[in-house]
Amino acid sequence: MAQHVAPSRAPRLLTVRPLASASGASASRPSWDIRLLYDGDCPLCLREVDFLRSKNAANKVVFVDIAAPDYNPAENANISFERAMETIHGVTWEGRVLTGVEVFRAVYEAVGLGWVYAITKIPIVLTIANKIYDVWASNRTQLTGREALSVIVERRRLEEAGKASCRTPQAAGAGAQQQCE
């Protein structure tokens, strides 16, 4: 029986070379299966990540905090901070990008707890689970006592723009260097 996956949820192959390392330098099979992009400023997200880390004895999951100042989209299938904040993302070692419940299923499988999300292999269950997750994802910042997602994303954009202006030749004057540090 063929399974139907909604087009917006279908994994996409973004690159032909494996993401063997953060820099992508090696084309051999890495020891990890999936990179989990998570919001390190989200208290509930951190609880789940802490739990998953405790089960990640084989290091099959690489945890990437998108809220960290050094988060680099180029090292994570070019998933921008804004896009990563909208919904959870995972990047497999082959370079496939997963979103929503499929990420949880892949990560739980990688740490040996695949049975937890196994039911989401049934298409109707996956559809319902994704709809519920989408409601959570779009409201999670406010539900966890933080500002609206749009405010957080705009603040990050302005911070990044400020860093970029520090690298421009016009900002290289004596006074500008102090402001950029």
Automatic annotation (TrEMBL):
InterPro entries linked: DCC1-like, DCC1_Trx
Gene Ontology MF terms: protein-disulfide reductase activity
Secretion signal span: none
UniProt xrefs under PANTHER family: OS04G0668800 PROTEIN, SI:CH73-390P7.2
Entry protein name: Thiol-disulfide oxidoreductase DCC
